[in-house]
Write a structure and sequence with these properties.
The complex is a heterodimer of chains A (346) and B (100). Chain A has 346 residues and is mainly beta. Chain A contains 2 helices and 19 strands. With 100 residues, chain B is an all-beta fold. In chain B, a hairpin with a 2-residue loop joins strand 6 (59-68) and strand 7. Classes of the chains: A mainly beta (346), B mainly beta (100). Chain A: This is DUF4421 domain-containing protein.
Chain lengths: 346, 100
């Protein structure tokens, strides 16, 4: 059995953003469906640890069980010296994973023995399709993958309602957000370098917490005795930031995303350039148009894993007129991450 | 006189998608990254073609062992392990010839 151990150190600039579907991103959202066990037990375990400069760490455990299809399909085309031998293969497998939200920290998983806010867990089923051909002494391959994914995240949000009674103005809203998605990825045959096309459709139960105005609120008490006034501030372990409760809403969201990644050979397959536009539909807002660009520095010999990733995203571009914030402040997000990957056989 | 040949091999590489093993010109395995092969062979050489598929830039390591009538054999030009990477077309063919 082969274990893949990934240690990820994550640096945050600005807000957390999502990167492309395929290459491991700074949110550690990639799935190890592309890793194959050389011992052919079919099982691969990806264990990831992460940290960011502002807060604690993150942890992710991802198990993938992979099986090859029962029989390859062999056929030939052409004739004479131009004969081409084809072999088409299929594989499939299931996976499961659990991970913390990066900014919440590892302890969130283990705290009180429960899945605490910030934890996401889920499973997926993947079908892999490989096409190969041998012609003129050369072996050529392409592949595509279909992934059905479902997960659920647990969130907890602090809200401030200025219109409520004083004692009821500060509340905590727990939120369970399921996501079901279907994704497709294609790697066509390329004479050099690599290209990946991705597309996904998903449904999510989500909320607009990230879009709300926020307030910094602390509960202070003033105590006077013997001519001294003491200010006592109650410590809130969840922080002092509260969002506007009046604007908070939960809603169904439908997400459509495309992705394109180019890994040029003349940069020795060590750099990946990606663009990934998306449209989110749901809630009170009209359709939200997003787009992202990223640059990844890839691991030598493993051009599917990024060591370093810099992402730029514009989110909700189409609704800029509805916000009081400036366009850049509201839409622009930057993410920077570094990954250290250790592959280990046990 | 035939030689009783036992051949085992596996290909390692995190980004490697598949391996097609052709032994004596016949496809004996397609997909899995390892193989166990045993047969009586009249020819004096065991010819193995590894067709290795994955993204361009993916590196791999081939490990193999072979015995002929219980005696260990190897390709002196390409002893195990063999390292390499996929440079073009998402695939590469590596051939070893083991005198029996």
């Amino acid at each position: 059995m082969r274990y893949v151990l990934t240690i990820i150190i994550i640096l945050f600039v600005g807000q957390t953003v999502y990167a492309q579907d395929f290459i491991t991103d700074r949110n550690n959202a990639g799935k190890p469906v592309f890793f194959k066990s050389p011992s052919d037990t079919g099982k691969v375990i990806l264990f990831s640890l992460g940290a960011n400069v502002s807060d604690a760490t993150a942890i992710k455990l991802n198990v993938y069980n992979h099986k090859w299809g029962t029989k390859p399909r062999n056929y030939t085309t052409g004739s004479g010296t131009d004969i081409v031998k084809h072999t088409d293969l299929t594989a499939h497998g299931w996976g499961a994973y659990v991970n913390t939200k990066n900014k919440e920290g590892v302890a969130k998983i283990f705290k009180s023995g429960n899945f605490d806010p910030g934890v996401t867990g889920g499973g997926y089923y993947a079908w892999n399709f490989y096409r190969t051909r041998t012609e003129n002494g050369k072996f050529k391959t392409s592949n595509s993958n279909l992934i059905l994914n479902g997960d659920v995240s647990f969130g907890s949000y602090q809200l401030y309602d200025s219109k409520a009674d004083f004692t009821k103005q500060l509340t905590t809203k727990n939120f369970v957000g399921p996501v079901i998605g279907l994704g497709y990825l294609i790697r066509p045959t390329k004479s050099n370098g690599n290209v990946y096309w991705t597309g996904s459709v998903s449904w999510a139960r989500t909320n607009n917490y990230d879009d709300l105005d926020t307030y910094d609120i602390k509960n202070d008490s003033l105590i006077s005795a013997n001519g001294i006034t003491r200010k006592v501030t109650k410590m809130n372990p969840n922080g002092d930031t509260y969002a506007d409760a009046g604007s908070y809403e939960q809603f169904n969201e439908y997400r459509f995303r495309l992705g394109y990644t180019f890994i040029p050979a003349n940069l020795i397959n060590r750099f990946g350039f990606s663009v990934y536009p998306s449209v989110y539909i749901g809630g009170k807002k009209s359709a939200r148009l997003n787009t992202g660009l990223s640059l990844s520095y890839l691991e030598e010999g493993n051009p599917t894993v990024s060591i370093f990733n810099l992402s730029f995203e514009f989110t909700d571009i189409s609704n800029s007129a509805e916000s009081s914030k400036s366009f850049l402040k509201r839409t622009f997000k930057v993410g920077l991450s570094t990954n250290l990957n250790v592959f280990k056989k046990l | 006189m035939a030689n009783h040949v036992k051949f085992e091999s596996k290909v390692e590489g995190a980004a490697i998608d598949l391996v097609i093993f052709d032994i004596e010109g016949v496809q004996v395995s397609a997909g899995p990254l390892s193989i166990k092969y045993e047969k009586d062979i009249n020819d004096g050489t065991l010819n193995v073609d590894y067709k290795i598929g994955g993204p361009n830039g993916a590196s791999f390591k081939i490990k193999y062992s072979c015995t002929s009538d219980g005696q260990p054999k190897t390709d002196l030009q390409k002893p195990s392990p063999i390292t390499g990477s996929i440079a073009e077309n998402g695939g590469v063919i590596v051939t070893i010839k083991i005198p029996l």
